Amino acid sequence: MSEPRPTKAAPDASRRSERSRRAIFDAALALVSETGYAKTTIEGIAARAGVGKQTIYRWWPSKAAVLLDAFLDLAARANEALGGDARSEIPDTGDLAADLKYVLRATVDEMNDPAFDAPTRALAAEGIVDPELGARFTEALLEPQLGYYVRRIQAAQAAGDVDPDADPRLALELLVGPLHHRWLHRTLPLTHAYADDLVDLVLRGLAPRA
Amino acid sequence: MSEPRPTKAAPDASRRSERSRRAIFDAALALVSETGYAKTTIEGIAARAGVGKQTIYRWWPSKAAVLLDAFLDLAARANEALGGDARSEIPDTGDLAADLKYVLRATVDEMNDPAFDAPTRALAAEGIVDPELGARFTEALLEPQLGYYVRRIQAAQAAGDVDPDADPRLALELLVGPLHHRWLHRTLPLTHAYADDLVDLVLRGLAPRA
DNA sequence: TTCCCGGCGAGACGTCTCGTCTCGTACGCT
DNA sequence: AGCGTACGAGACGAGACGTCTCGCCGGGAA
Fold this sequence. Notes:
Keywords (chains A, B): DNA-binding, Transcription, Transcription regulation
CATH topology of the largest domain in chain A: Tetracycline Repressor, domain 2
Shape of chain A: elongated
Organism (chains A, B): Streptomyces viridochromogenes
Largest sheet of chain A: none
Oligomer: homodimer
CATH superfamily of the largest domain in chain A: Tetracycline Repressor, domain 2
Number of helices of chain A: 9
GO molecular function (chains A, B): DNA-binding transcription factor activity; transcription cis-regulatory region binding
Protein name (chains A, B): TetR family transcriptional regulator
Order of helices and strands of chain A: HHHHHHHHH
Number of strands of chain A: 0
Domain HTH tetR-type (chains A, B): 18-78
Radius of gyration of chain A: 20 Å
């Protein structure tokens, strides 16, 4: 069970070049933002990074995997620059509706920002088709974000603002699902007003039973 | 404004070979189901269909566009075989919750069926990244389906089962968004129980105000 | 310090698919 | 009957894929 996979001899990660790793991330992010994901090639990333192609193929299985790691690295560094690890936690002012609207509005703004929209779309699309990558995408990017909602909703339950019998996970999907639906399928424009209406309608269903 | 696009001389659609068109659809669907979307190539479709590559390039801009048309053609033929054009309308037994659960359970079953899952995933993913194709995907496949929900919800409003001030469009997205979210991102399993819980929670928010 | 192992940059290599193009053929209007 | 155009077939160059083979270099072991 624990034998090395017969596919290939695994490289020695302890001898890995941190310098090349970072150069690859920088090149990948730059190329995607400049020319778009579809036109970005592994050969192009290698050339831009001043790196041999084999160095990429040795450590990543696909272009999408490189970009995902680059994206995660970027997020981790930005996160770290802000200090604490609770940076993205949803605020708790005591007003659940206001707190959720604040976060959903910010999410709407991100989705309307090409710098965020383009690479995230590309990763999401790739993850939809490639289960392996999709699992990593979901686990590393999506789920942590969803956790913020779970905790905020649980706090609201403790405060008596939400029916204690409601499933926080289901509640969160009612907020995030419609937003992603509009975003990914471009059915209707994403606005702050939409975020507000969404929160209001969902919270009506979550109100404690009279 | 109405001059022919300088890109290319448009082919004469009236002389188009119906035989080749059908052969291309059949080959595309067969190859996608046999070897998967990613491994399906335009050259492969042409060979399988006994058709010149140019015949495909003359009428479609991309592999995804071919598959979308093939899918629509398949759906149209299956639809026609069933008779009426109201075939997929959501039933109205007077019990809104039961009717919605029936439809959402059927949707869950489709999403769990590889024969439906694989090509739909591929098309959705392609549409997410390619706005042109995404618009056609949304318009031809997604929106008609959403219309069924709108009409059923409006009927419920007329019957007094749903708050008349609620926006049917928003209500529908509360049902469909979370389902698609779980489906596309594979966060948690899609079950009939989930569909039921979803309907119950959403309808709580849609109940007429006391 | 010396030695040596393995990742490194570089790029050649064969393969594959792309999208364009150019044949000669065959089909459907006029 | 003749004419035009889509058709089947496939050659073609471009470009990216993923593998490979070079020396080179750097760091842990002797």
